[in-house]
Amino acid sequence: MMSKEFDNILDECLERLLVKGETIEQCLQSYPEQAAELEPLLRTALATGKAVDFQPRPEFRAKARYQFRSALREMEGGSRRSLFGWFPRWATSVAIVLVVLVAGSGTVAAASNSMPDSPLYSVKLTTEQVRLTLTPSPLGKAEFCASLADRRIEEILYAAGKGNPRQVEEVTRELDVCLTRLSSLASTQGEKGGVMLAPTPTPAPAEVAPESTDGGERTYSHGNNQLKLKLALKHHAQSHPAALREKLKTVPPATRAALLRAIAVSEDGYEKVLKTLD
Amino acid sequence: MQNEESLVQRARQHDQEAFAQLYEEYFDKIYRYVAFKIGDRTEAEDMTQQVFVKALRSISSFRWKGRPFSAWLFRIAHNLIVDYLRKRSRRAAVPLAEPMPAGDGDPQQAAEQRLDIDRLALATRQLTEAQREVISLRFAGELPIAQVARVMGKNEGAVKALQHSAIAALRRALRTQDNDE
Known about the structure:
The structure holds two protein chains of two kinds.
Chain A: H1 2-19, H2 24-30, H3 35-51, H4 58-79, H5 89-103, H6 105-111, H7 121-134, H8 138-161, H9 165-191, H10 226-248, H11 253-277
Helix pairs in contact in A: 1-3, 2-3, 4-11, 5-6, 5-7, 8-9, 8-10, 9-11, 10-11
Chain B: H1 4-12, H2 16-38, H3 41-58, H4 69-90, H5 107-124, H6 129-140, H7 145-152, H8 156-180
């Protein structure tokens, strides 16, 4: 009975200590008769509480939050039927082509270099989707996706430089879609015993790989083969997160969280792609 | 945080914002609980994400019925830990990739905390499984005693007694370490 009473007192003191932030002395004053027995236990409890008060790494927190939000969106998306969901895939492509044609080839050309703060940016994304849809071979699609990832990094750097976290977030979502598609293209090739999973020769020296993200747009559609794509992806897996991390040093505090998420998405995305390739 | 029961009800109806609030409320606690139990940062990070993904997938099956959301969430974490430890014990003793996390701030403080965590981890080996669970849920998971009782499927009186014996055993183990040094 006495022991039960002491268990209750100990628990009450722990609540006061750990949750309400009271001191050990305040607790002991409330229970002078039990003070001698209570004090050492409370000191051990306090030390235990302090020892386990570790925080998740900020990069992990940002990455986990982003992935969780994406999972939430996917679940939400899965429970709804999109407009395009009613049409066969070819009809969707035709619809997009028509939209682009209506928008006019001059507009499309002007949009190709637009950044996320431009009114033409959505035209750029639509044009990319059309081109991706109309690219016949999986390797061609993968090459184009790799170049799109490169563009997205440039756009994230641009939006971060402008101190616009919302746009950083939006482009990061596009980057995530792009890297996920790349990973899935690589695994599809693997299942078919295809080209992308062929054994990789010894990695080439750095100069064989494309330049880093500040070197303007690059595409892989002319005369590049699978090996070049693999090398490019390996290079991007290093250079893209590195460029974003470098930018982190100069962005305003309000943009840091969004940029950290972009780093996490980029690291995680390339890790998955390279795992599939290996 | 808004009333938890109403948040859970909204989350069950696929309200993204409600689930996101629950996630923010419990993320650190679940991470600390998992990391303290398995002692490996990389695995703890993976497992923390798994806990929330599992919760997200099965939230529609959750019924309040007096068992709080936290108890349900920590039960998911507990089950994943049990599976993980079972698999790990089947494998040969592999050195942990990255040991228990310490703080990420001041290096001096992080080193001291690292020492505290190591000592604590060693001391908890002297505890029974039930005592370890109480310490993990109460201190790393920051759950009140009533919720610890729900997770462990025991009554509050029994958990308070376990808490008492666990802290006393920890104290003895830490004193033994001090005497050995």
